[in-house]
Amino acid sequence: MRLGLFGGTFDPPHLGHLALAAAARDQLALDRVLWIVTADPPHKDDSISPIDQRLALVAAAIAGHPHFELSRIEIDRPGPHFAADTARLLSAQRPADDLIYLMGGDSLRDLPTWGRPRELLAHCTLGVLRRPGDHVDLAALEASLPGLSQRVAFIDMPRVPISASAVRDRVAAGLPIAGLVPPLVAELIRTFGLYR
Question: In this structure, what is the dihedral angle of CA atoms 186, 10, 58, 55, given to the nearest 10 degrees?
Answer without folding.
Answer: -110
